[in-house]
Design brief:
single chain; 11 helices; 8-stranded parallel β-barrel; TIM Barrel; alpha/beta; globular
Length: about 350
């Protein structure tokens, strides 16, 4: 079940475990470096069914750090295209996707291993948000986005979509979670606007829907298109499952192929509790109301748990991140225990006997 090939639209994934987007903070002027070649080469033949590149900014202000990938300049697009071409030579069967995003008020930050990713003091930039509310104590107050900013951001998403297709990606995912700009617009915690982009749930989702329509119109119909959305803010007055269902239904109407249900992140500390597959319950509630494919993420490296989740319709497939950082070949170890030798390259079989 887990390791059978399955299709999303016209894209064939090798199995139902996809390497999740994981920022490496190792780009130079938005372009990939040798680190990306090294890092992604270890993942493209990891036994996963698909590979997502890290969250990539639609423009410079949309970066989290100075080390983020971006896909807004000609050089960046060309360098990303070279990287994808190289990875396809290593494995031409695995679909490769790109997650595009704008960091919003979480931008202009240090690398996570420097001062725990706290905001930059030097060489910083002005961040944008739906409302001029700082992320947390010690964070700068962002600029409240105006209509001109919104128009420009829409254009940037459009151009990034074109660039992602030119670069050779099989899948495109819009990041609408983890406290970044689009999540900030949807959440009542961060959106206190009184115009058509604030107030009601419909208004708070308006920018997300408008951008999704732009991307859907531009992205090839035969390729895979998805969004990572927030199932819950894990806060009393934040996004709830019913809100996520509204957004997911809008994306379904627009013609998206899947959603990945995430949660938390709108502020540094929420009431989110970590345990095995802790978002599976949220994704199950959302999936009941939808026809498009639903995925989730969060502590999901147990194959039996994944199998049960697919069987009981909690999700259709999963995105997994951190276990691949710890051990890029953890899938081989897992399947060796269930004698699924079709996943393990024959050159490595004797290491798992």
């Amino acid at each position: 079940m887990i390791f059978n090939e399955f299709k999303i639209n016209k894209v064939s994934f090798l199995n139902r475990i996809i390497v999740s987007s994981m920022c490496q903070y190792s780009a130079r002027d938005g372009s990939p470096t040798l680190w990306h070649y090294h890092h992604l080469s270890s993942l493209v033949n990891s036994g996963a069914g698909g590979l997502m590149l890290e969250s990539t900014a639609i423009n410079n202000e949309g970066k989290i750090t100075h080390g983020d990938l971006s896909i807004s300049k000609k050089k960046q697009i060309n360098e990303i295209k070279k990287l994808i071409k190289y990875l396809k030579k290593l494995n031409n069967k695995i679909p490769i996707g790109l997650q595009i995003s704008h960091s919003g008020r979480k931008g202009s930050a240090n690398f996570p291993w420097i001062k725990k990713g706290r905001p930059l003091k030097n060489n910083s930039w002005k961040t944008l948000a739906p409302s001029a509310i700082r992320r947390s104590k010690g964070w700068p107050i962002p600029k409240q986005i105006n209509d001109r900013d919104i128009k420009r951001i829409k254009i940037n998403y459009d151009k990034s979509t074109i660039a992602a297709n030119q670069a050779g990606f099989d899948c495109l995912e819009i990041h609408m979670a983890h406290g970044y700009l689009l999540h900030e617009f949807m959440s009542p915690i961060t959106n206190l606007r009184n115009d058509r982009y604030g107030g009601t749930l419909e208004n708070r989702c308006r920018l997300l829907v408008e951008i999704s329509k732009i991307v859907r119109k531009r992205w090839p119909k035969i390729k895979c298109l998805g969004a990572r959305i927030t199932g819950s803010d894990h806060l009393k007055n934040g996004i709830k499952e019913i809100d996520a269902i509204y957004l997911a239904k809008e994306l379904e109407k627009i013609g998206f192929d899947y959603i990945c249900v995430s949660s938390g992140g709108i502020i540094p500390k929420t009431k989110m509790k970590f345990k095995k597959g802790f978002r599976a319950g949220i994704s199950k509630k959302i999936k009941k109301k939808l026809k498009l494919k639903v995925s989730t993420t969060g502590m999901l490296d147990d194959l039996n748990f994944i199998k049960k989740g697919i069987k009981n319709k909690s999700f259709d497939f999963v995105f997994i991140g951190r276990p691949f950082l710890k051990n890029p070949r953890w899938i081989f170890e897992k399947v060796s225990q269930i004698k699924n030798n079709n996943i393990i390259p024959k050159q490595y079989l004797r290491g798992f006997n």
